[in-house]
Amino acid sequence: MKVSIVMGSKSDSPVMKGAAEALELCGVEWEARILSAHRVPEELKEYVRRAESEGTACFIAGAGLAAHLPGVIASFTNRPVIGVPIRAAFDGLDALLSIVQMPKGVPVATVGVNNSFNAGTLAVQILAVEHAELQKSLQKLRTEKARAILEEPKDREVFDE
Ligand code: RP5
C-alpha cells in the first residue's frame, strides 16, 4: 500500500511537500516523481501504469497553470486521483478550475489551492477504509489540531504579534 505523489515541475516541490508530511504523520509509504503531462507524456503514462502494478493505491498530483497533470493521470488509472492546484498565476484559480472540471466518469478529487496537506490527509482517509489501523493516525491528527486551537491565547493576547 503506497501513495504516489506526482508534480509537473521541480518548482512545485515546496508546495507538494505538505502531502508527504501528512502521509508520514500517518505512517503511510509514499514515493514522489516530477513528470509533466505536456513535456513527458509517454513517460508519465508508463510511470502511472508501473506505479499501479507496484501497489500505488492512490495518486496525488499537483500542477499549476493549465494543470492537466491530475486529469491525465486519471485517464490512465482507476485508482483515486487527488489534484492539488498550484498557485502560479491568477492566484491559482486557473489551475483550480482546470483540475476540478473533469468530464463525467473520470473524476479528480480536488483540494484547495496549494493545500497539499489536505491531499495527503484525504489519501489516508481513502486508504483507511480498508486499513482500519490508519483511523487512529487520522484521529490523532484531528486531536492535535483541536488542541492547538484551544491552546491559542485569549483577550488582548489574541492580537499580539
Ligand atoms: C506547470 O507549470 C507546473 O506544474 C508548474 O506549476 C508550472 C510552472 O512550471 P515550470 O515552468 O516552472 O517548470 O506545468
Describe the structure.
The protein has a five-stranded parallel beta sheet, sandwiched between helices. 37% of the residues are buried. Helices cover 45% and strands 17% of the residues. It is an alpha/beta fold. α3 links the parallel β3 and β4 (81-86). The protein has helices spanning 13-25, 41-53, 69-76, 93-100, 116-128, 134-150; strands at 2-7, 30-34, 56-64, 81-86, 109-110. The chain has a single domain (2-159), classed as Rossmann fold. α1 packs parallel to α5 (116-128). The chain is globular and about 55 Å long. The chain is built from six helices and five strands; from the N terminus they run βαβαβαβαβαα. The protein binds 5-O-phosphono-beta-D-ribofuranose. Residues 8-9, 11-12, 36, 63-65, 86, 88 line the site of 5-O-phosphono-beta-D-ribofuranose.
Topology:
Blueprint (H helix, E strand, L loop, with lengths): L1 E6 L5 H13 L4 E5 L6 H13 L2 E9 L4 H8 L4 E6 L6 H8 L8 E2 L5 H13 L5 H17 L11
Parallel strand pairs: 1-2, 1-3, 3-4, 4-5
Helix pairs in contact: 1-5
The chain binds 5-O-phosphono-beta-D-ribofuranose.
5-O-phosphono-beta-D-ribofuranose binds next to strand 3.
Short summary:
With 161 residues, the protein is an alpha/beta fold.
Task: Kindly list the characteristics that best describe this protein.
45% helix, five-stranded parallel sheet, Rossmann fold, 161 residues, alpha/beta, binds 5-O-phosphono-beta-D-ribofuranose
